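thread: overnight batch results

M.L. [08:02]
morning all. the overnight job finished for the chain we discussed friday. pasting input first so we're all looking at the same thing
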Amino acid sequence: MNQTQVIEPPATHQLVLRPAGGADAASLSEMLLGLPEWSLYMRFQTAIGSPPRPELLQQMLEPNGAAWVAERDGRVIGHSMWAWVAGVEVPTVELAVIVAEAEQRRGLGVQLMTESGRHALAAGAGQFLVMVSAMNDKVLRMVRRRWPSARVERDGALLNFTVPAADFFTG
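M.L. [08:03]
and the structure it wrote out:
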């Protein structure tokens, strides 16, 4: 007797990086809910609500620039975005990134920031602003390693790094 066994193919665990949109709100919210309060505070510098406020999710997914999500097995595991900074002489964009706890320290944050930076450069960015909590050692090390020549100014609990467009990919 011949038996047929149905075997599910193994999950690919493939990383997908793609533009974000409003349809990603639920999955992004789920990722944010899985992060420790400390990680959320380090990224947003304020409480974001539980679940995150819809206005916040909309700003993250539809900024005045562009946004990306990283997915693995159909779940959002990372988010990056750039947004134009108003009232500055040089066309400046703020970069922001957040990565699920289990995916940190694997280069995903750098990959997301690189994708956002590429897109912002194509849109005319002359420099980048990366705002980091002075207590966020992980991100501070990454920014200082990637852009050692970035100008930095302290603004209360934040360190604001300015990276000229010409230096963005040389770090």
